[in-house]
Amino acid sequence: MPYKNTLYISDLDGTLLTNKSGLKDRAAQMLKRLSENGVMFTYATARRFDSANFRMNKAEIKLPVILMNGAIIADGKTGEVISLNGLDNTDLSEIKKAAEQYGEAPIVFSFIDGIMRASYLESKKSRVKSFLDDRKGDKTIRSCSSYDELFKGNVHYLTFLNPSFPDEVKKVLFCAEKGFAYTEYYDCYRKNELWLEVFSVSASKANAVKKLREMLNPDEVVVFGDNLNDLSMFEAADRAYAVSNAAEILKETADGVIGSNEQISVPKFIEAEQTSIFEYSPRENVINEPDAARFEKAAAKSAESAKKKTEKNKEGKANAETGIGTLNEKRIHSVLKNYFSNDYDQEAKIGSFYADIVTENGIFEIQTGNFGKLNKKLEIMLSVCHVTVVYPYEKRTRVISADDANGELLREGRFRYNNSLTEFFLELYRIKSFLTNPNLTICIAELDVERVNYVSKNTGKRRKKGAFTKTPLALRREIYLEKPSDYLVLLPEGVPKEFTVKELQKYTKTTDAKLMLEILLYMGAVDKIGKNGNAEIYKIESNMYQ
Fold it and tell me: For 33-48, what is each residue's pLDDT tens digit?
C-alpha cells in the first residue's frame, strides 16, 4: 500500500543525477508528475542552490531543499534561504593559518553583500580545477589573491580537495569544541579525488532532515543516497535506500538497495510506492498463444465492415476505412480492436480522450505507431485504471501487386520475415517515462500480414502515394511485458550474461543494440558493471528491483 504522506529526500550526485552530473529528462518528467499528484519530494546536496537548480529545474521542485550538506535550507523554487547554520559565530583564524601553513587551496562559501559566493585562490587554481570545470559560466565564483581576501564575508562552508592535513591536525582543527564538524569522502565522479568538507557542528543533512520533518509534518521520511556524507541523513530517516553504485558502508546501513543512478532508480522507486494499483489479471506467461478462432471472427467482422463502406463509395474504390491513400494500418487496427475487445465496449471516453477498448481488465489501446501521441492519454488513463498498449508487429509480410483500376491480381510474392525490433524500441522510448508504471502493460501482437500494392497494370508503378492496403492474416503470438524481467524475453537466444554493445549487436543483428539497451537499462533488466577498455560492460540482472 502506498505511503501517501511520505516525504522523499534524495541526494543528487551519484544518486539522482547521472554519472555526467545531469538529471535525465525522463527522471525530471516523472518527478514533476509525482509532485503534481501530491507526492512530497525534495533533495539534499552538498551543492549550492544555483548549481543544484541548474540540474534540477526541469523537475520543478516545490518543497524546500537542503543545500551545502545541511548548512542551508532554501526555497526550492527561488533559492531564498529559509534556514542557515553558518560559521559566522565561529573563529576561522586557526583554519586560515593552517591552510596557509600546509599550502591548502580551500574553496570558501560565504555571503558577500547578500550574495552566496564560492571563492578560491587564483594562485592555487590548478588544485581546484575539477571544481571550476564543473561550474563554468557560474558568475558567483570568485577569484581571490590572498587568504585574507578568501575568508571575507559571512562564511558558512569550506571545501578542501585532496587535502594534505595530517589526521591529527584535522581532528584538532575541525573539532566540535571549536564549533566545527567535517566529513571526508571520495568524489562519486572522480574516484581518486578526496573531498574534505567543513561546516558548523549544528549543520548536517540529519539536522536538516529533522527541520524539514518539523516544517512539512509527513507521516514518515524516506531518503536515498550513495556516499559517506549521506550517512547522517540515513540515521535521521524512517527508511533509507542506497543506490547500487553506493559506497559499501552505505549499503550495509540502508534498509534496501535499489538500482543505480544511471537507471533513474529513485523516481522509479517512488512511483512504485505511490501508484495505486488497479485491479488487473496479469498473464501467467510472458509469451501467450493467441485464440485463433477469436482472431478469425475479428478479421471477418472487420472485412464485413470494410465491404459495406466500400459499397457506399460511389466510385467503387476502397475508401479511407480500407486504408488506400490514408492510414494504411486501419485494417490492422480494426481487426486487433475486434480481437482484444472480445465483445466489450469500444471507443469509451476517459476524461477528454477516447479509449479503444474498455474491459473488466482495464483499457486496451491499439497503437500501430507514433507512441509519442500517447503521452497525454496515458497520463490521464493510468490514473484511473490499468492500461494495455497493443503494438502490432508485422513478423511476416507477403507483398501482392494488384491493378489499381479493377483489383486484378498481377503478382504475388512470398512471405518475408522481419526480425528487427528497432521500431518497437523506438516507440517505447517515446513513452519511456511511463514504462515502469505498475498499471501499464505493453503487448506485442506478432502478425502475418498481407500487403497489397495498387499499381498501374501497364507500368507497374503506383499512381498514388500510399496506394496500398495491409490486412492481418494471422496472429502468431502475444507477448506481454508487465514487469522489468519480462523485457529479457526480447533478448536473442545465446546472449551471454555479460556483454558489450558490440557483442550484443552480433546477436541482435538487425535490431539496434544501443536502443535496445537504453530500454533494458531503464527498466532495470540489465545494468552497467564496468568497462573493458573504453567499452561498457552490461550484465543481465537476476535479482532486479521489480
Answer: 899 989 999 999 988 8
